[in-house]
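We include this case.
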Amino acid sequence: MKVDFRDENKYVPESYAESGDTTNIVDLSWRDYFSDANLIALIDTALVNNQELNITMQEIAISQSEIKARKGEYLPFVGLKAGAGLEKEGEYTRHGAVDEQLEIEPGKSFPNPFSDFGIGVYASWEIDVWKKLRNAKKAAVSRYLSSVEGRNFMVTNLISEIAESYYELMALDNLLDIVERNIEIQGSALQTVKQQKEAAKVTQLAVNRFEAQLLNTKNLQYEIRQRIVETENKINFLVGRFPQPIVRDSESFDNLPIGPVQEGIPSQLLENRPDIRQAELELMAAKLDVKVARANFYPSFKISGGVGLQAFNPAHLIKPESIFYNLLGDLIAPLINRNALKAQYASASAKQIQAIYEYEQTILSGYIDVLNQLAKIDNFSKSYETKAKEVELLNQSVTIANNLFTSARADYAEVLLTQREAVESRIELIEIKLQQMNAKINIYRALGGGWE
């Protein structure tokens, strides 16, 4: 039967950039990488209480039990057996007629009904000539280690998700603060316009436009408050507790450092990323499964035997004549109707090829993930600098527009437009800062940090 085999491709480029520096931020623990004490406390709690993580821990325990089961298969099975029974043969049967003629001792016939008492040790052992059972055990070990790496991968994602939600919560607090301050500013502007209307300097149209903008901003604050509630609840769910306020210092959000990124070299991904290590271990298990399936075509050797004492009267069990023993060796080889074995072998071979593709795909995905996050850090840093300058200019423009409007040298539409642009630019600046923080989180995760 022809099966397609090939080796996995572990190639990755030599470096992400021209430098090729092997210094890597994953050497930092997540406690050092995320210096916020409130965030660290949330992550610590989540690593203990998160239900999904605890479910995964039970899956690891199941995999560990599978190793013990596989290990027991290639060791001898030894047991102790004791029993008692009663049997009566019909006198007009072959056994019954023979029993009537037998004498245990002169003048003492064979008992009928016949009692049977026995105690002994029995054993059976399949000799693992082709390493089928050992390879099955090794495959179980690989899958157990794979489940551990799966847990590690879940830890990195859990830490990243909590950090992203935490910084999002801080960003929302800042957005709400911007909106509330603008509500005060727009409220004052509305009072000014009403006074000017009373002085016949503007019409009701101007009053309506200012009031409509104020109502729009007030409506925006309710949307942000709802997002804050949902984000807090999301964090509490990830932490594994019922909803409660999330402690955070949102005033420091604008000044959160990004820090230099030391990405190392791509080959380090093969060791650092848990999902790549998990895929590699699954591939090792799939290769062993092929060996096990191939060994099914070969003969199996089994030895069984027992030794003990057996008699129809318990008093005779202490006599040497009651000793029994047996030894049996079996050689079993598939001869006819091997289609099931062929199908099992073909299935194991196909799963191995599938595992190779999944392993290669995971490596490629990890490498591209790192490149994307590096690009985000670079581009959002530049974007933040540009947007900060825009915010500064628009803040100045709001002051200028208000002064010109008060002195009747500018139209109210210019004031409204400038105010709206200033609010939108400040909101966009907060969102860009959040994207920066997410990129900082995700480059650490993409490089394989956070699970140790």
In short: The longest strand covers residues 114-127.
